[in-house]
TrEMBL record:
Residues 82-160 form the Acyl-CoA dehydrogenase/oxidase N-terminal domain. Belongs to the acyl-CoA dehydrogenase family. Keywords: FAD, Flavoprotein, Oxidoreductase. The lineage of its organism: Bacteria, Pseudomonadati, Pseudomonadota, Betaproteobacteria, Burkholderiales. Residues 164-273 form the Acyl-CoA oxidase/dehydrogenase middle domain. The keyword Membrane does not apply. PANTHER family: ACYL-COA DEHYDROGENASE, BROAD-SPECIFICITY LINEAR ACYL-COA DEHYDROGENASE FADE5. This is Acyl-CoA dehydrogenase C-terminal domain-containing protein. It comes from Acidovorax bellezanensis. Its cofactor is FAD.
Length: 598
């Protein structure tokens, strides 16, 4: 059976020592009174909830899955899931970072992200039920009418109701311009929606009395393509003016998808048979509102893989210390035992350190982005808000794709540490691998994220956003460039930072002549950008660790951080050289391949 220990020490290191969040909060009136003790106390209790309430349900939930009564369209979640959610709501966790105007606790977003990392480590499938509600909350908070906000946000904030996002149709995944769901206006100003949606996570369940669905659909006179999409809020039960529940709305679960992983989450096929909804935002402008939800979800999906990376690493490390196999190549290490533990073998350490580096780098990136979001939302200086928003937009596809690709690598490597036992269900490792696989697919496949990064976020504004991140790298290089102890961390990012300008310009020029060049280079480009970001963050972590060691701090945490950073720069960061070479190979070898793919 697997185990899990919340990585509170690493979270505290990032929050208080690397990013010094309480200093950042002092500039934001909403969070000015939030101190380190409050943050630490909240995260400690969050860790207890994850370990004691949701983690014990992970394997059983995977084995049991969800069941659908096709007569009533009701979905029953695995044993214990509903009760765990009731505890989650009772503890106030659903409201942690929500607006106090709607009953939220108003804590910083970064604290909420730490909570969700631990919940994802403990039980990703369960965590998706409250997680989807946050996206619905954000979209309505940003684009809902006052009436919609008053009707739905208090219940979403408290967790009394949950939310879902309904985009995908059987013929229409990434290309939302193809969707067919129709919305016909009714005399009272509402709309009647008809159509079918698939792959709707948490689309039907028994946790709450109501589910608030956000649905993309077309108005009768809508333009073709993505410019003719509108967004509607369609509750499972209609809501009366006083907030009480009315009639059952005809949005029904017609089936549950049979999946590779996340069995405990109900991935629903939803049929809208004249379901009543109200318009969110402007007609035919639904994508703008939905992207608020989608971007929140993309950051959340990166956090899912971060959680799985951490829990898989923890269990692989414990197993490697205990499992006896062969003797060390450099001489016996455990003389009192018939064989040495496998952690003495270099390749086992390579796999363990890869998972550890991806967990710690991913946590640093998630924390960094979360602080930027807090600044984007609440900083009084408009320029700071704009700069933060621009950096978040640049980093969002990296969080989604780089962290989920790394999570797949880390979970499979952690499984590999177990050898044959990793393939056996009782150890729990194969579930982490299965659950991690979906994260590379949904909320926009990682190939789509790469196109978004290179085509829209970098080339789309002539590299302006990339230059802003480059300035952060340049400031660190200038600050530590003469520090010999930092050279092994600073020199690689300084070199890659310089190379990125030429690399990006080269792809941009080729793309102007042939757009396929951008598509051919984008996935490699995203990984290069991901390593630049990780490199910058590992250098900042090493900077703090070296400073503490020089001051006489004997906490082994800092030496461990340095050793992980050294491994990252020596064994993982050099991937960038190969990636830039393959990106420069161009589109011809891909597109001039009709015979090979006949």
């Amino acid at each position: 059976m697997p185990s899990y220990n919340p990585p509170l020490r690493d979270m505290q290191f990032l929050l208080h020592e690397v990013f010094q969040v309480t200093n950042e909060f002092k500039a934001m009136p909403r969070h000015a009174e939030v101190d380190a003790d409050t943050i630490n106390a909240v995260l400690e209790e969050a860790g207890k909830f994850a370990v004691n309430v949701t983690f014990p349900l992970n394997i059983s939930g995977d084995e049991e899955g969800c069941t659908l009564d096709k007569t009533t369209h009701a979905v029953t979640t695995p044993k214990g899931f509903k009760q765990a959610y009731a505890q989650f709501v009772e503890g106030g966790w659903a409201a942690l970072s929500c607006d106090p105007a709607y009953g939220g606790q108003g804590l910083p977003f970064v604290v909420n992200q730490c909570l969700y990392e631990m919940l994802n480590s403990a039980n990703q499938a369960w965590t998706m039920y409250p997680g989807l509600s946050h996206g619905a909350y954000e979209a309505l908070h940003a684009y809902g009418t006052d009436a919609q906000k008053q009707l739905y946000l208090p219940k979403l904030t408290s967790g009394e109701w949950t939310g879902s996002m309904c985009l995908t149709e059987s013929h229409c995944g990434t290309d939302l311009g193809l969707l067919r769901t129709k919305a016909e206006p009714l005399p009272d100003g509402s709309y009647k929606l008809t159509g079918n949606k698939i792959f709707i996570s948490a689309g039907e369940h028994d946790f709450t009395s109501n589910i608030v669905h956000l649905v993309l659909a077309r108005l009768p006179d809508a333009p073709v393509g993505s410019k003719g999409i509108s967004l509607f809020v369609v509750p499972k039960f209609l809501v009366n003016a006083d907030g009480s529940l009315g009639e059952r709305n005809p949005i029904f679960c017609g089936g549950l998808e049979h999946k590779m992983g996340i069995h405990g989450n109900a991935t629903a096929q939803l049929n809208l048979d004249g379901a009543v909804g109200t318009l969110v935002g402007q007609p035919n402008k639904g994508l703008a509102a939905m992207f608020v939800m989608m971007n929140a979800a993309r950051l959340g999906v990166g956090n899912q893989s971060l959680g799985l990376t951490e829990v898989a690493f923890q269990n692989a490390l414990a197993y490697a210390k205990d499992r006896l196999q062969m003797r060390s190549l450099s001489g016996t290490k455990a003389k009192d035992k018939p064989a040495d533990p496998i952690i003495v073998h270099p390749d086992v350490r390579r796999m363990l350190l890869t998972a550890k580096a991806y967990a710690e780098g991913g946590r640093a990136l998630s924390t960094f982005c979360s602080v930027l979001i807090d600044k984007e939302l609440h900083h009084p200086d408009e320029k700071v808000r704009q700069n933060s928003a621009e950096l978040v937009a640049l980093l969002t596809p990296i969080v989604k794709a780089f962290l989920t690709d790394n999570g797949w690598t880390a979970t499979t490597m952690s499984q590999q540490v177990y050898g044959g036992h990793g393939f056996i269900k009782e150890w729990g490792m194969e579930q982490f691998v299965r659950d991690a696989r979906i994260n590379m697919i949904y909320e926009g496949t990682n190939g789509i994220q790469a196109l978004d990064l290179l085509g829209r976020k970098v080339l789309g504004n002539q590299g302006a956003s990339l230059k802003k991140f480059g300035k952060l790298v340049g400031q660190l290089v200038e600050e530590e460039g003469v520090n010999e102890k930092m050279a092994e961390f600073i020199n690689p990012i300084a070199m890659l930072g310089e190379q990125m300008t030429k690399f990006t310009t080269e792809i941009g020029f080729k793309g102007m002549q042939n757009p396929d060049e951008v598509g051919a280079a984008s996935v490699d480009y995203l990984r290069v950008a991901g390593h630049l970001v990780f490199g910058y963050l590992f250098a900042r972590m090493a900077q703090v660790a070296l400073r503490e060691i020089a001051a006489g701090n004997a906490d082994p945490f800092y030496l461990a951080k340095l050793q992980t950073a050294r491994f990252y720069f020596a064994k993982l960061f050099p991937e960038t050289a190969t990636l830039m070479r393959t990106a420069r190979a161009g589109s011809r070898v891909l597109m001039d391949s009709d015979a090979a793919l006949a």
